[in-house]
Specification:
This is DUF1152 domain-containing protein. This protein is α/β, with parallel strands linked by helices. The chain has helices spanning about 5-10, 30, 35-40, 85-95, 110-120, 150-160, 185-195, 210-225, 230-240, 275-280, 290-305; strands at about 15-20, 45-50, 60-65, 70, 100-105, 125-130, 165-170, 200-205, 265-270. It contains 11 helices and 9 strands. It is globular, with a radius of gyration of 18 Å.
Length: about 325
């Protein structure tokens, strides 16, 4: 490894088929799009998946394996919220047939079974779990965990997969302040992962990159068609890419809150997934859960028995 290499892309170089999966639900799969386009240009097979917030019971799609719905451009779904469907339609407008595989919101055990079934069905040999934000690195004793249920269920599910390469990529440094995450604690986690060789550095996304232009177009297309529920994370990252700074709002959903749009928001932070999983203090306690309600109870019980590290401002 030297300054001419990208540790993230170097780790993925041997892979033939990469699954890029949104780990935290919602629009997280969109945060993986710049990497998706780069890997496609490198000649790799790349598949998109997402832990979905869509009401999948209202989607008229096919279930290739239990717990996973295959969404395509022609798939009909809820009018109010269906980012995966609109993303597939965006690809179709470009003449590209790209399905998005949607995982149901479940507990870790059920999600683990769904990931294993999808791997057997598709045969991918690498997984990049993408977090829109940075709360996936919270180990459990921080003052704010963000929205841990989906992230940690996905983390535990992918940890158990028998594939050669498993990575975590975060996009949107600062976004999770909206959910009470202390970013000094995030940087502390990065330092701890660096000490054990699990930190793979940052990769800047720049507006001049063709992959970024495609990402921005996809975000704009889908958010315009979901005006009541656009993505706060994706629009914040787009603002950062375009050079905005500070309390800049692109959606009415953030009115009344204070945002910190900043250049670090448009960088990929990459990590070895197994190293991230080892640091999570409550992942093992969640391994047998089959519902989000079970996960919630276990997380609350864990938090009640551990001292919580207080908020720390970044001293700069």
């Amino acid at each position: 490894m030297d300054l001419s290499t990208s540790p993230l892309l170097e780790r993925l170089a041997p892979a033939r088929h990469v699954l890029i999966a949104g780990g935290g639900g919602g629009f997280d799969v969109f945060s993986g799009l710049p990497l998706y386009f780069r890997l496609r240009e490198l000649g790799k097979t790349v598949t998109l998946a997402n832990l979905s917030f869509t009401q999948l019971s209202k989607v008229q799609g096919t279930w290739p394996v239990p717990g996973v719905l295959q969404v395509e451009a022609s798939t009909e779904g809820p009018e109010y919220y269906f980012p995966e469907g609109w993303l597939s339609r965006w690809f179709a407008r470009r003449g590209d047939k790209v399905p998005v595989y949607c995982f149901e919101q479940t507990g870790m055990a059920s999600l683990r079974e769904a990931y294993a079934a999808l791997q057997a069905h598709l045969g991918f040999d690498a997984v990049v779990l993408v977090d829109g934000g940075t709360d996936i690195l919270m180990r459990g004793d921080e003052v704010g965990l963000g929205t841990p249920h989906e992230d940690i269920a996905s983390l535990g599910a992918v940890q158990a997969l028998a594939v050669p390469e498993k990575l975590v990529v975060c996009l949107g440094f600062g976004v999770d302040f909206h959910h009470g995450v202390c970013h000094a604690h995030f940087l502390e986690s990065v330092a701890a992962l660096s000490k054990e060789g699990g930190y793979l550095g940052v990769t800047a996304l720049l507006e001049a990159m063709p992959e970024v232009a495609l990402y921005k177009d996809a975000v704009a297309f889908v958010c315009e068609r979901m005006p009541r529920a656009p993505s706060i994370v994706s629009l914040s990252v787009v603002s950062a890419l375009e050079g905005d700074y500070g309390d800049v709002h692109r959606t009415e959903r953030t009115r009344g809150s204070t945002l910190w749009i900043n250049p670090l928001m448009s960088m990929y932070w990459a990590f070895d997934l197994m190293a991230v999983a080892r640091r999570c203090l409550y992942l093992e306690a969640l391994k047998d859960t089959t519902t989000q309600a079970q996960m919630h109870l276990i997380i609350e019980a864990f938090r009640a028995t551990r001292p919580v590290r207080p908020w720390k401002d970044i001293p700069v």
